[in-house]
Design goal:
nucleotide-binding; ATP-binding; two-stranded antiparallel ribbon; single chain; Fic-like fold; Arc Repressor Mutant, subunit A; mainly alpha; Fic family protein; 2 domains
C-alpha cells in the first residue's frame, strides 16, 4: 500500500512569527501587564476562592459557546455529585463539572511548576479523555451541521475516525489527524518559543488551528479552551486562574446578543485560504490569522480588565456589606465579612473578640454566614474563609454571567 502523503502546509501558518504587527505586539504587552496586576491587594486565600468561582464561570461560558445553557447552580450541583435525572441534561452537567475539575488540575500543576506543554498531542488527548471519562456512551451527542443534526458517540481521548463538516468546509482527512497534531505541536512547542510575546501570540493562534484540525468527533471547542487556559499559564498571563478565556470568547467585544456571534465570525475569518503571495507562505491566510489573533488578545484583555474592576479591594468590601444587608444578616455579619476579606482567614475563636460580642452571639453570626454559603471552613474547627457560590454572584460580581 502506498504511503499517505500529508500536506502539512494546509494548516500553515500556525504561528505569527515574522514581521509581527505593532498592534499585536502592543496587545500582547498590555495583556501581560494587566494580568500581572490582577488581584493585587487581596489576600491569597480570597483569591483562591475567586479562582474556584471563575472555573465554574469558565465552564458556564464554554457551555454557552456550544449552545448549552447550563446555569452555574447546575454545575455546582454536579460538582457535589448530584446530576439531573434527564440523561441528556445530566450528561451536560457532568461534562461541565469535569471542565471545572480539569481547570483546577491545570491550575494546580501550574502553581507547582508541573504543567506539561499544552500543545503536545498527549496533553490534548488527556484533556479530552478526562473531560469525557465518565460519559455514558449509550447517550449519543447531537451535533449541529449545515445539513441538520446528527447523533455521534463520544470516544474519550481518541482521534476521530471519520471526516466531518467544520463550519463551511470539510475537515482535514481523519487518517491524517495524527500527523497534523504532531506538526501543530512542533510549531507551537512551548520550549521552542522564546519570549513572553511569542507565547502569548501562540496562545491566540493555537485556539483556531486546533479547531481547524478538529482532532476529535466531539468536544474540540471545549478542549481548545482548556488548552488556552493552560497556555495562558505558560505565557505568564494566567494570573492564578483569576480571569476567564471562555467568558471573553462567548461575549466578544460588543457583549450582548451581537457579541455572541463574534467568536463564530472570527473563526470563519481565520479559515480563509491564502489568495496571493502577500498573504503568507501556507495554505491559509496570514492576514486573516493576524486579525483573529488581535481579536482574541483584545477579548482576553477585556476580561482581565473586567476582573480587575471586580477585584478592587474597596469595591469588594462595599459589595460584601450590601450583600449582608440584602440577606438581613444579624448585626456583626457585614463586619465579619469585611474582616475576612482583609485577612483572608479568621479563626472561629477570634470572632467574639473581633465583633466585641459574647461567644454565643459570635457563634450565631458564624452559623448564619456559613448557612448562607458566604463563609466556609475546611473543618468545623478550622479558619473561616470567604466563599462565592452562585447565589452571591449577582451582588458580589455583577455582570459576571448572563442568565
Amino acid at each position: 500500500m502506498a504511503a499517505i502523503t500529508v500536506s502539512l502546509s494546509r494548516i500553515e501558518p500556525v504561528r505569527i512569527e515574522e514581521k509581527v504587527k505593532v498592534e499585536l505586539a502592543e496587545a500582547s504587552l498590555a495583556l501581560a501587564k494587566a494580568s500581572d496586576r490582577l488581584g493585587t491587594g487581596l489576600p491569597p486565600e480570597t483569591l483562591a476562592q475567586v479562582a474556584a468561582m471563575i472555573r465554574v464561570i469558565n465552564s458556564y461560558y464554554s457551555n454557552r459557546i456550544e449552545g448549552n445553557n447550563t446555569h452555574p447552580r447546575d454545575i455546582e450541583t454536579a460538582l457535589a455529585g448530584t446530576l439531573d435525572m434527564d440523561p441528556r441534561r445530566g450528561a451536560m452537567h457532568r461534562e461541565a463539572a469535569a471542565d471545572v475539575q480539569l481547570q483546577a488540575e491545570i491550575d494546580h500543576r501550574a502553581a507547582w511548576g508541573q504543567l506539561e506543554d499544552p500543545t503536545h498531542p498527549d496533553f490534548i488527548r488527556w484533556l479530552h479523555r478526562e473531560l469525557y471519562r465518565d460519559v455514558d456512551t449509550t447517550v449519543p451527542v447531537i451535533r449541529r451541521t449545515n445539513a441538520g443534526e446528527e447523533e455521534i458517540v463520544t470516544q474519550p481521548g481518541i482521534w476521530r475516525d471519520g471526516d466531518v463538516e467544520v463550519r463551511d468546509h470539510l475537515s482535514l482527512p481523519h487518517d491524517q489527524v495524527p500527523a497534523y497534531m504532531d506538526h501543530f505541536h512542533a510549531r507551537l512547542c512551548q520550549d521552542e518559543l522564546h519570549g513572553q510575546t511569542a507565547k502569548i501570540l501562540a496562545m491566540a493562534t493555537a485556539d483556531h488551528r486546533l479547531n481547524f484540525i478538529h482532532p476529535f468527533h466531539h468536544g474540540n471547542g471545549r478542549v481548545s479552551r482548556l488548552m488556552s487556559h493552560a497556555m495562558a499559564h505558560h505565557a505568564g498571563i494566567g494570573a492564578d486562574g483569576l480571569w476567564s478565556v471562555s467568558r471573553g470568547l462567548a461575549r466578544g467585544l460588543e457583549g450582548g446578543v451581537s457579541g455572541r456571534e463574534e467568536y463564530r465570525e472570527m473563526m470563519q475569518l481565520a479559515d480563509q485560504v491564502r489568495v496571493d503571495a502577500q498573504g503568507g507562505c501556507g495554505n491559509l491566510s496570514l492576514d486573516a490569522l493576524t486579525h483573529y489573533a488581535y481579536w482574541f488578545l483584545s477579548v482576553c484583555l477585556d476580561q482581565v480588565n473586567f476582573m480587575a474592576d471586580l477585584l478592587d479591594f474597596g469595591g469588594m468590601g462595599n459589595r460584601l456589606t450590601h450583600f449582608a444587608e440584602t440577606q438581613n444578616f444579624r448585626t456583626g455579619g457585614a463586619e465579619l465579612l469585611r474582616v475576612v476579606l482583609i485577612r483572608g482567614q479568621v479563626e472561629r475563636g477570634n470572632v467574639a473578640t473581633i465583633l466585641n460580642v459574647a461567644p454565643r452571639t459570635a457563634r450565631a453570626v458564624i452559623k448564619e454566614l456559613t448557612d448562607a454559603g458566604i463563609l466556609r471552613s475546611d473543618t468545623p474547627r478550622s479558619a473561616l474563609e470567604l466563599r462565592f457560590p452562585s447565589q452571591t454572584h449577582e451582588i458580589l460580581f455583577p455582570n459576571l454571567f448572563e442568565g
